[in-house]
Amino acid sequence: MTIxxxxxxGRTLLTTSPTAHLDARLLLQYVLQxxxxxxxxxxxxxxxxxxxSHYQQLVHRAQQHEPIPYLIGSAPFFDFELEVNSAVLIPRxxxxxxxxxxxxxxxxxxxxxxxxxxxxxxxxxxxxARPLPPIITLEAVDIxxxxxxxxxxxAERLAPGRIQFHLGDLLTPLSxxxxxxxxxxxxxxxxxxxxxxxxxxxxxxxxxxxxxPDGLDVIRRLLAQASSKLAPGxxxxxxxxxxxxxxxxxxxxxxxxxxxxxxxxADFAG
Length: 270
Hints:
By secondary structure, the protein is α/β, with parallel strands linked by helices.
């Protein structure tokens, strides 16, 4: 099997994927450890028996809806690549918008301490650590030891020495005085869970997705804890479902009666 034949093989078997061409290419690049340009330039080069077998195995796993980032062990976020596995969510483009909102806020509000709650792969914390000055303390929390291990490895490679990691439930490991809290917590409702793509509900961690009957179970707990951990004038940035904005108002108004400026912004996913 040549490189061109391998790409055709992958595209043919992955026809149910809307990105079959890209999926086949990424899997082959991973197996051969060659860039896209090399696949184009050397399409008539034959794969070894081991390479061919490995590639076919990955294609068949992708046919079963196993996400490509898990198969190749990495996913892009902003301008860097994150290690990912089934212990962490695959980072989405809409989460980049959450990071951009936080960065915009910090430009007009001096801060000294920021925390990423439910850090997963460390995507948000790392994306903030890279441009923010070292004087700002960044902390990241996750309840999953396996997820925290992934986040630590990513941070060691992409933002060495910049992030303090904590194992624990939401804000419990953190001391008061946080200027910014940012979180992409579980917000999928029980009803929505059954409608998710198979690749999501079969392979991505349910702990990081399922938010209860209305999707707000974990977010309510965060807000309850935040009332004693957020510094005066601080801000909380959350990624939630499009239908949940109204559901957060009563909770937020009750816990933070003197705070104003609650605002929702649609992301790429609506």
